[in-house]
Design a protein that fits this description.
Layout (H helix, E strand, L loop, with lengths): L1 E3 L4 E3 L2 H21 L5 H7 L1 H4 L5 H9 L10 H23 L3 E2 L2 E2 L1 H4 L2 H20 L3 H23 L7 H27 L4 H28 L2 H4 L5 H4 L5 H10 L4 H11 L5 H12 L2 H20 L7 H16 L2
Antiparallel strand pairs: 1-2, 3-4
Helix pairs in contact: 1-4, 1-5, 4-5, 4-9, 5-7, 5-9, 8-9, 9-10, 10-16, 10-17, 13-14, 13-16, 16-17
Length: 335
């Protein structure tokens, strides 16, 4: 058993391991090349998060999906660079909106420079992703554009909140399907499509990515509360401090609506001023011990299992086994 990439996927097949490792190495080189500019400061800012590392979850999924066709086809690595550049760009913007201080274990771009630099650097990365995408053909451009529209729509829906009468948890699951599931679905789709895989396999791997993307974000929700900064690479409770209603908090509020006094009391704490460090720490401590966190973990497992079942029609092979193990790796992140 070997471990591939920063995400830590276990791979038991030497040929698959070699292909995936070679692909991820090429993606890393592609990311550094795509973030170079004639202006040294832009290069420094654009490579800030690239050099900080990361899970490279999306490129890893591209590489595994490509195993169902020709994994060495010329569009595979560039498409993986595109999805990771797009993801990185959203992180620069997210950190501005969240006023985050830490990302991937280093100061966020907005903390290192300022909000304007962070936003414009994110825009620069979008531009570079689009430049690469143009060489992959009109279908790839359309697919990426549709995914990006879903991603932004998800972010707007999160900001706007659920409409009157809409269940907040259902609304939230729609939000993360757009914000996270869309780009991870494209990762599976691009890997299969660029490798020349059969259309049915492209469809399966797209659906798999969508479901796994939801599980991945739910695991992040759990990590935001349950982990420390060493584990997650960012400040714990960032979403909590900003009042962003992640799944554990939504489960808590659903319980409080049924009349549990302790749950209502904790909700009142969350509704207060969590910019105060002592109140924030107390909220984290109590949420970590609350059944709502375990309920969110169970939801994470459920979506990961749905992703695994989606793979059933694919032929048995090392890549299919690795995709199944990826479901386990996502769940493991949530504890």
């Amino acid at each position: 058993m070997t471990v591939v990439g920063p995400f830590g996927l276990s791979v038991r097949d030497q040929a698959l391991e070699a292909d995936v490792q070679a692909g991820l190495t090429a993606v890393e080189e592609g990311l550094l090349e795509a973030t170079k500019s004639d202006v040294p400061f832009i290069t420094e800012a654009a490579q800030h998060l690239v050099r900080a590392g990361g899970k490279r979850f999306r490129p890893l999924l591209v590489m595994l999906a490509a195993q169902f066709g020709d994994p060495h086809a010329p569009g595979v690595v560039p498409s993986a660079v595109v999805v990771e550049l797009t993801h990185l760009a959203t992180l620069y913007h997210d950190d501005v909106m969240d006023e985050a201080d830490v990302r991937r274990g280093v100061p966020s771009a907005n903390a290192n420079w300022d909000n304007s630099v962070a936003v414009l650097t994110g825009d620069f990365l979008f531009a570079r992703a689009s430049h690469i995408l143009a060489d992959l053909g009109p279908d790839a451009v359309r697919i990426q554009a549709e995914a990006f529209e879903r991603l932004v729509t998800g972010q707007i829906l999160e900001t706007a909140g659920p409409r009157d009468g809409r269940d907040p948890i259902d609304h939230y699951l729609d939000v993360i399907a757009g914000k996270t599931g869309s780009l991870i679905a494209v990762s599976g789709r691009f890997g299969a499509m660029m490798s020349g895989a059969d259309e049915s396999m492209v469809s399966i791997l797209t659906q798999y990515g969508e479901r796994l993307g939801t599980a991945f974000q739910l695991a992040d929700d759990v990590l935001d509360i349950a982990s420390d900064s060493h584990e997650s690479g960012k400040t714990p409770g960032t979403d909590l401090r900003e009042g962003i209603p992640t799944l554990p908090v939504l489960h808590l509020r659903a319980r409080a609506a049924k009349g549990e006094a302790a749950d209502r009391e904790l909700c009142e704490l969350l509704d207060g001023d969590l910019t105060d460090d002592s109140r924030h720490a107390e909220a984290l401590r109590r949420l970590r011990a609350h059944p709502a966190l375990e309920q969110a973990r169970r939801d994470t497992v459920r979506y990961a299992e749905e992703a695994r079942r989606t793979l059933s029609p694919l032929p048995a092979c090392p890549a299919k086994s690795a995709l199944e193990e990826l479901c386990d790796a996502v769940v493991h992140r949530a504890g």
